[in-house]
Structure formats: structure tokens, C-alpha cells
Input
Amino acid sequence: MNELSGGDRIRVEDGILLRSGLFGKSEVLVPVGKNLFRTENQPEATAVFFRNAQGRMCYVALGRDGEPYAERASLAWLYFRWLVLALCVIAFASSVLYALVWIFQWSLGWLKGRWSIAIRLVPLLAVACLALAFISCFKTLDNLGELNLWSLLVFAGTALFAPVSLFALWLAVAAPRSEIHRAVRIHSLVVSLACCTVAVFLASWHLLALRLWAP
Output
């Protein structure tokens, strides 16, 4: 979550340098020297701007809410990631809602053939793996670092999520056209792509096959 919501937003408004979180209240940065700043309530410099060896603007701030080290980045990229993840969550929710429909159809015997069931079921299983890991993470916060049922469920959910997502994507592409309605295939493809996208995010954050008990 810190990757998505952490960091400081630095901007200039009416000649005043402002600092804030992505969603918090702004505070004024008062200049006290070359590239040195402080807030209005601090007696000395607590923030500094400088360029690293690659020429990128960097920022360091001290204090309880300080930033140990930050590099200038585009807000557009951050908002783009939020948008992508929001669309993925919508796709996940649609798979759960659609399951209420096709499970009812299957119980009445309206769905026949292994492809018809698999192309609906496997994307839902991928979403279930992620949901299991997410819920279990909250359950294990009080005993973080211990090997217990919840930490094992976190490991199982994050380990199975990526391969199940890839399998769901393969099913959406490989299922015979004669057996699968076009709308069903498109929905399965959308959900599977959303799962694979989130799997890429988790992999970049080293959260696949997560072992909370590991040193």
C-alpha cells in the first residue's frame, strides 16, 4: 500500500512551496538556505533537495512524518496504476456476481461440457485465491512472523494466484468457439487479464508465494 499511497507531493502555488501526502493536508516549506527548507512549526532545516549521480531531483526530510529518501516521479504513472487496479477490482467483482448466475444455471443442468464450466470456474478460483490471501493477511497481523494457519493460507493464496490466473487466460483463449458464447469468452478474458495484471503487480512487490514466517 505504501507503493501506491506513500511519498510526498511537492508543488509550487503562488510562489509558495507546499508539501503534502497524496491525500493529506498541505503544509508550507519555508526556505532557510540553499536547497534547505523547514515547515512553519520547525526551528531549523528539516528538508533538503539535491540531485543524485544520475541528475534526478531527490528529497530527504526529517521528523515523524519525514521522507528518508525520495526521487522525483510522475504523478501520472501513480494515478495510472490506481486506475488499472481499480478496473481490476471491478473485473473481480463482476466474476463473483456472474458466478451467482452461472452456478444457478449449472444447478439446473443448463450448462454442459467441461469447457463451459472451466472457462467460468477457473477465473473465479483465481479471484478466490487472491481474496483468501488478502483476508488471511489481516488475520495474521497480531502474530506476524509466526507459522500458523493464517500465514499458510497467505502463502497458498499468493502462490496459487499467478498460475491459476495464467491457466484461466489460456482457457479463455483456447476454448472452442462452438462451445462457448462470445460474451462468456470476453468476460472470462477480461477477468483473466485482470488477474494476470495484478499478479504482475504482486511479483514486482515480491508478494507472490509470500512466506510471512520467513526471516
